Recover the amino acids of this structure.
């Protein structure tokens, strides 16, 4: 039994979600191969070869793969699929974009967003915004799976000595053309990989008031998150959104400020190791899952907390 991991990377380094996906693959068992599809991605392939547990790296290097366009990467997965019992990708925007297309081309049913491996053919995944856990058993010969990285330990980045095999990528399909990428540049940690996340909700009140959240985050060296209500109100960009329709995070410390705790938000952060909630409403649902709760006006409590850190 062999498992193929589709690596998420930026043509320079591997994204942390790939390491968690390899961690999930190690629980399934079997040889673990990693597909690095990109342009001028020799450094990424070398990095992948050093990951503990990886036995082979397949490098598809072509100009058409500089950007992760699903129509160009999915055919590579289809071509390689007959050699594998499982094909895994992170349950990020990257993996969710590519793997369903490959699954359709292979006429197989994808298993999405798994949080646990029961056996080689049985997995657990959240449903109903995480309020129920479904156990899914697949009889498909090739199982295509996206992995929620926050629930699996990351594979070690050293200790491996995998071979690197070149793969001749097919010509671009031209079904989709890359136009441009508009990326938010920040010196703060990446939201999905940060050890500490400070999030603000509707209770923060305005874009200007989010400076309170930013000061606390900077003091802690934390990433900044937000509830959907705060994003919809225009307080912060949508790439800050944590929740069922945003980003899934599981930091060591999650501080929820002015967030009531809607089910959709809890689905994106309740895997955090320690949850601290600050809200003036003592009946806010967030307190039901918080390890530490402070019933207070955030405009008094947060500046005082920042000052004393």
């Amino acid at each position: 039994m062999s498992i193929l991991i589709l690596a998420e990377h930026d043509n320079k380094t591997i994204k942390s979600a790939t390491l968690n996906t390899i961690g999930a693959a190690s629980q399934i068992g079997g040889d673990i191969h990693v597909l690095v599809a990109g342009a001028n991605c020799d450094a990424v392939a070398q990095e992948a070869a050093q990951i503990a547990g990886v036995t082979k790296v397949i490098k598809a290097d072509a100009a058409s793969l500089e950007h992760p366009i699903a129509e160009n990467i999915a055919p590579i997965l289809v071509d390689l699929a007959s050699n594998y019992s499982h094909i895994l990708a992170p349950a990020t925007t990257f993996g969710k974009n590519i793997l369903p297309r490959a699954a359709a081309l292979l006429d197989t049913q994808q298993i999405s967003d798994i949080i646990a491996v029961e056996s080689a053919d049985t997995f657990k995944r959240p449903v109903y915004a995480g309020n129920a856990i479904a156990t899914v058993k697949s009889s498909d010969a090739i199982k295509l799976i996206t992995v929620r990285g926050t629930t699996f330990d990351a594979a070690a980045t050293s200790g491996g000595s995998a071979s690197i095999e070149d793969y001749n990528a097919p010509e671009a399909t031209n079904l989709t053309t890359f136009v441009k990428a508009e990326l938010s540049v920040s010196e703060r940690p990446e939201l999905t990989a940060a050890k500490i996340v400070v999030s603000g909700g509707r209770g923060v009140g305005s874009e200007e008031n989010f400076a309170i959240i930013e000061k606390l985050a900077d003091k802690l060296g934390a990433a900044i998150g937000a509830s959907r209500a705060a994003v919809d109100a225009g307080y912060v960009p949508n790439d800050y959104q944590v929740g069922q329709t945003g980003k899934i995070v599981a930091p060591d410390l999650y501080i929820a400020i002015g967030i009531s705790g809607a089910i959709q938000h809890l689905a994106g952060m309740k895997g955090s190791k320690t949850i601290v909630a600050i809200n003036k409403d003592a009946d806010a649902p967030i307190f039901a899952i918080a390890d530490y709760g402070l019933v207070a006006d955030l405009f008094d409590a947060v500046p005082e907390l920042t000052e004393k850190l």
Summary: DSSP finds eight helices and 15 strands in the chain.
